[in-house]
Amino acid sequence: MEFITNVFQLMLVDRRQVVLSALSEHVVISMTAIALISAVGIPLGILISRFRRYAQPVIYITGALYTIPVLALFGFMIPVLGIGIRPTLFALFIYGLLPLVRNTYVGITGVDKSIVEAARGMGSTSRQLLLNVELPLALPVIVAGFRTIVVMTISVATIASYIGAGGLGDLIFRGINTYFLELVVAGSILVALLAIVADGFLGLLEKYLLKRVH
Amino acid sequence: MISFQNISKIFPPEVTALEDVTLEVQSGELLCLIGTSGCGKTTLLKTVNRLIEPSSGHILIDGQDISRLNPIALRRNIGYVIQQTGLFPHLTVEENICYVLRITGRKKALWASRAEELMDIIGMKREYLRRFPRELSGGQQQRVGVAHALAANPNIILMDEPFGAIDQITRIQLQDELVKLQDRLHKTIIFVTHDLQEAIKLADRIALMNQRKIIQIGTANELLFFPKNNFVENFMGSSSFFNVMRLLPVEEGLVYDYPVFRLSQQGDLRQKAEQKARNLRWQEYPVIDGEDHLVGFFTVDGPTKGDPHPADVLLSPKITFEQALKKLFVSGKSRLPVATEDNKIVGFFDFAQAYEIIRKSCNY
């Protein structure tokens, strides 16, 4: 009990500034990575749904990248991009690409064939088909993919502290190195909380979208 | 007019779906494409809005080769109704109906009034406009599907088994509504179905397909009573008693040499009439004037009183054998005069004759 009080004392009072800046760093890194992944992943998913013969290779490649263990990936990054924020973002980007590309692709190609054909039969251009029919109907699946990458990015960003990215990982690793358990737990709680809140919010969004579509 | 000229379709590598199909659909006609599964009827339908491009042959709409038209523009001028309704689940009924208006960039201000107009046409309450498709019954969804197709007021409508997934009672209701709608709108409709009763009920003409080819085109009666080959005969079930009863019009089985009493004769009409009745040993026969109009019936017990030609004894030449026999039984007579709307006698419907015709049509 005393331990828990200490943790919150540390988090909310003693090291408030440090904790807050670590938290905001973490949020900034994660959000930047998520923005990058979305900016590339969603268009890429759409693109391979238009040009289906590229779908398998693209999903295979992103899938292969996804299977690289996090630490190994960071290891590969360091000689090329050095340490700090750049390799971190790059690693997170590579890591998060697969779920979003795959879900975008599966979401669009999974739209009921008869609906797509009706839309085409009524004279939709392929742009209108995509924007008015396919994307809105694929949205729940795309959001589900987005939800996966958000949670994943938030947790993987913690490990990125190893290569000097900063963020909540700093608190945890610093705590481990100095045997300051309260700090380890404080960092962990915040990472978990961040992931849970983001996941919960996106879960609600997904549920709402699903209800609209079905 | 839609004219299919030698249409063939081979799906790569070598699955033939259509083989040299030639067919003309007249403007304002409802043509049913009917046949067993996989006979190519849906493929043929989809060549009209170029969802499928034929491997060879041409399709002309009002003389214009559609392969030279922009497919998007072509499709916007053709209504399309499919079995799974094709409604967009994420759009309201109004947004669904107005989809074509939206993609053709019609002003938003026009949508609402057009949507309301269409709801009136398909006989649905306007309050449904705000609902989503999932909140409607299957029959209502399909009605909206029809409104969807009518939105841009196309001359041609393609319907691909639109009522196939709907329960029997609602289907019959929707068919009746389509008949009424077509009586009013006179669209050129190609209607794909595998349900013979549906085709007979709806079609001006039926094109029967089998194994990628059109086997016979004609009215339901032509296919039923003059089948080109065994396949048509078997498919139409020509020997089916009910088809004959429901489809054969009375005018196909009239007798003309039936005794009548003409008022234009000279002399004592009453005496002559009684004489005639005695000679013929008939209790009753119709009386007509000089222009073949039915005036009444002469009976030995005395002339009929009241209305000389009550409508329930007169038959129209267009009614079916089923209806005619019903009237005959109700009247208690063995023969009834058949007359046009202005009471002009065209012949007689006679029980013995009807019996022979039904036997012959049913191949008994």
Radius of gyration of chain A: 20 Å
Number of helices of chain B: 14
Mean pLDDT of chain B: 84
Strand content of chain B: 15-25%
Task: Write the H/E string of chain A, N to C.
Answer: HHHHHHHHH
Please give the most extensive interface between any two protein chains, plus how many residues each contributes: A-B, 20 and 28 residues
Number-wise, the strands of chain B total 15
Count of discrete alpha- or pi-helical segments spanning 4 or more residues of chain A: 9
The total strand number of chain A stands at 0
Biggest sheet, spatial arrangement of strands of chain B: 6-7-8-3-9-10
Largest sheet of chain B: 6 strands, mixed
Give the integer mean of the pLDDT values of chain A.
Answer: 90
Order of helices and strands of chain B: EEEHEEHEHHHHEHEHEEHHHEHEEHEEH
Helix content of chain A: over 70%
Helix and strand content put the structural class of chain B at alpha/beta
Instruction: Show unreliable segments of chain B.
Output: 305-309
Shape estimate of chain B: elongated
Rg from alpha-carbon coordinates of chain B: 26 Å
